[in-house]
Amino acid sequence: MPPPRILKTHLPIQLVPPSFWEKNCKIIYVTRNAKDNLVSYYHFQRMNRGLPNPGTWPEYFEKFLAGEVPWGPWHDHVKGWWEAKQRQRILYLFYEDMKVDPAREIQNVMQFLEKDLGDEVMKKDH
């Protein structure tokens, strides 16, 4: 597939293929606060029959805090990407910031990608 290419993943930093770093890829990482992740993970695991039963909410809460969920510790995931942004081309975004000021965050993404949407697109009411 010719560039530019877009890939979406939930991988922790240590599982990203080395070619990403060798090719100096640009990466946009979006994180969400731990509480909302916990709720989302719990409901996703409840509905996904391919994953172990999450148990009760209190049980899952303790598993999440201990990092004993199928995706591993949330804090290790976000911390790994946070630290990597110091040495790799990673734009680290917060979901909550996107909700508060989507136009600002879109501008941040466009600047990172060295693209311009133009004022008319940014001012367009959706």
What does it look like?
- The chain is mostly helical and 126 residues long.
- The chain has a single domain, classed as P-loop containing nucleotide triphosphate hydrolases (Rossmann fold, 3-Layer(aba) Sandwich), CATH 3.40.50.300.
- The protein has a two-stranded parallel ribbon.
- The longest helix has 14 residues.
- It is globular.
- It starts with 17 loop residues before the first helix and ends with a helix.
- The mean pLDDT is 91.
Short description:
The chain is mostly helical and 126 residues long.
Whole-number mean pLDDT? 91
CATH architect. name: 3-Layer(aba) Sandwich
Shape: globular
Q: What is the CATH superfamily classification?
A: P-loop containing nucleotide triphosphate hydrolases
Number of helices: 7
Compute the separation of the termini in Å.
31 Å
Largest sheet report: 2 strands, parallel
User: How many structurally independent domains?
Assistant: 1
Percentage of residues assigned to helices? 40-55%
| Portion in strands | 5-15%
Rg (CA only): 17 Å
Blueprint (SSEs and pairs):
Layout: H1 18-22, E1 27-31, H2 34-47, H3 57-66, H4 74-84, E2 90-94, H5 95-100, H6 102-112, H7 119-123
Parallel strand pairs: 1-2
Domain Sulfotransferase: 1-124
Protein name: Sulfotransferase
Enzyme class: transferase
